[in-house]
Amino acid sequence: MRICIFGAGAVGGHIAAKLAAAGHGVSLEDLPKRPGGRQTGGANRHKPSMLQDYELGRPMEIEAMLAMPCAFARAAGVEAPALEQLAAVAARLAARKGLYSPS
User: Fold this and answer.
1) Which of 18, 17, 45, 44 is nearest to 31 (CA)?
2) What ranges do the domains of the chain cover?
3) Where are the alpha helices (DSSP H) in the chain?
4) Of 66, 70, 73, the residue nearest 90 (C-alpha)
5) Is the separation of the CB atoms in 70 and 91 below 8 Å?
6) What tens digit of pLDDT does each residue of 10-57 get?
7) Helix (H, G, I), strand (E, B) or coil at 30
8) What per-residue confidence (pLDDT) applies to 35?
9) Within 10 A of 68 (CB to CB), how many other CB atoms are there?
């Protein structure tokens, strides 16, 4: 089974490392690369889209960006405590602003 992690930056790298360590066919070399050759996830001046959505009062993609990767990690038997915490905090903050309602 091949798993692809997109768009989560440092979180995606963390998940990929955990999955690789657990023997789930994930290679850190499979992470997207920047044009300069470095892996994504490095600090830059771009605000993540979820932060932009939060600041501008737009609906947030909590399910797709955080809840589903948590579910995939649980299904694979991989602990992802940082992602679980991030998902919980983001969902709570977004719900307080009316930008997310759990399914």
Assistant:
1) 17
2) 10-96
3) 10-21, 49-56, 62, 68-75, 81-96
4) 66
5) no
6) 556 666 667 677 776 666 565 555 566 555 555 556 788 899 999 999
7) helix
8) 61
9) 13
Tracing tokens 């050759």 back to the chain, one arrives at 37
Question: Percent helix, strand, coil in the chain (nearest 5)?
Answer: 50, 0, 45
Query: Within 13 Å of residue 61, how many CA atoms lie on the same side as its CB?
Result: 12
Contact 41, 6 (CB under 8 A): no
Give the single-character DSSP code of 33. Answer: B
Q: What is the pTM (predicted TM-score) of this model?
A: 0.59
Quick one: CA dihedral 29, 5, 78, 59, positive or negative? positive
